[in-house]
Amino acid sequence: MTIRHLVRKKQTLEYPEQRPAIPPGYRGVPTLVRDPNGREKCVSCQLCEFVCPPKAIRITPGEIPADAPTAHVEKAPKAFEIDMLRCIYCGLCQEVCPEEAIFLQNQFSMSGYTRAEMVNDKARLYELGGTLPDDHFKWDQKKGRRAGGNGGH
Length: 153
Hints:
Elements: H1 2-7, E1 30-32, H2 47-51, E2 57-62, E3 76-83, H3 92-96, E4 102-104, E5 119-120, H4 122-129
Antiparallel strand pairs: 1-4, 2-3, 3-5
């Protein structure tokens, strides 16, 4: 047994230059994503905050200004924070999101020097998440509809 271990090939990876392969279905860091036009998809419904087992998500709902191009949609979060020290990477936040605004990315190495650095705010979450394709086109105002109206019905 000892001889067999001495002659076999090394299995050590030189991290971070060499990284292990990420298996399909891996649940990594939760992030916020934008639609293909760069608009935020989160409407501060707070479902992810309510379903989070360790209560790692904090959302402060905010109103969209009446003169904004997306004023015809819904609310948007004023603040959105995920405490990565509390997050257990369960994926419930992604599953419950009706707007498909929160996704678990393949990033698995998060580090910081203080506890405050491990709390991802809204800007950091969008930076990590980026933009994902969207087939719903929810944010595009329908032609012939008035903003804030009921479409003339």
